[in-house]
Amino acid sequence: MTILEQVQQTTQFIQSKAQLTPQIGIILGTGLGALAQELTIETTLSYESIPHFPLSTVEFHSGKLLLGTLGDKPVVVMQGRFHFYEGYSMQQITFPVRVMHALGVRTLLVSNAAGGLNPAFQTTDLMVIDDHISLLLPQNPLVGPNPPEFGDRFPDMSEPYSKSLIDQSLAIAEDLGIRLQRGVYVSVTGPQLETRAEYRMLRQWGADAVGMSTVPEVIVANQMGMAVFGVSVITDMCIPETLEKADIQKIIAAAGAAEPHLTRLMRTLVSQL
Ligand code: HPA
């Protein structure tokens, strides 16, 4: 079966379980699932119940697809995403984004936990992603057969994150008194954290934050013509000269501390879409 046929089957399955037509897709990153509590949920589908969905193996991800309304907007939410380091292919990681598009989603909101490379940042800051660097990833979700339904063979990447959504989010953050940085996200596969030499290189390349997710999904969303909005939560600082031992519990705790701000920002942005 082709990926396109899989997308169609999965979409039909979800449509058989849910009445609403989501316009907005939301992918919640590691330790950042709280926005789900703001939803009026119509349908909850665990990933293992959805045909062709990979299973989320990371233990702090609950692995559920939620359909419902946030404020008055119909949304589909991925609580838990797929990472390349778990062993999935780039096509598997981005499969849900193609399904979201087939369900009707034209705006994609993504969040992630990331390491801060910009010395002006602090742990628990939020950073709106205004651009990314994908080139360190060893594979690309667009390599392979490209049925016309998927979009252009050579998609444009001049505005991978919607400028108007960035501007809107900055205005909201100012209104709400939320510290919102802005910068470039560079994706790596992980799962090991980076060395000091790697952080130095990433900073010199022009990145402000580094993480192990998001970029494959954003590439596919762009290919499909979706408007994308991304926020990183800075969970640890990655300055070579002052680097501390990585502590995953601390990273999760920092994500939790920033989460209420992220939730308010996302909820307000959705209300304005
Ligand atoms: N590197 C990569 N991914 C991350 C980091 C980091 O320092 N922090 C949180 N996610």
Automatic annotation (TrEMBL):
Enzyme Commission code(s) on record: 2.4.2.1
GO annotations of cellular component type: cytoplasm
Domain named Nucleoside phosphorylase: residues: 24-270
Self-association state and partner proteins as the record states: Homotrimer.
Entry keyword annotation includes Phosphoprotein: yes
Pathway info: Purine metabolism; purine nucleoside salvage
Keyword Membrane attached: no
An example Gene Ontology molecular-function term: purine-nucleoside phosphorylase activity
Enzymatic class: transferase
Role description: The purine nucleoside phosphorylases catalyze the phosphorolytic breakdown of the N-glycosidic bond in the beta-(deoxy)ribonucleoside molecules, with the formation of the corresponding free purine bases and pentose-1-phosphate.
Pfam families assigned to the protein according to its UniProt record, in alphabetical order: PNP_UDP_1 (PF01048)
Highest taxon of source: Bacteria
Transmembrane segments: none
Entry keyword set: Glycosyltransferase, Phosphoprotein, Transferase
One GO term of the biological process aspect: nucleoside metabolic process
Protein family according to the UniProt entry: Belongs to the PNP/MTAP phosphorylase family.
Protein name: Purine nucleoside phosphorylase
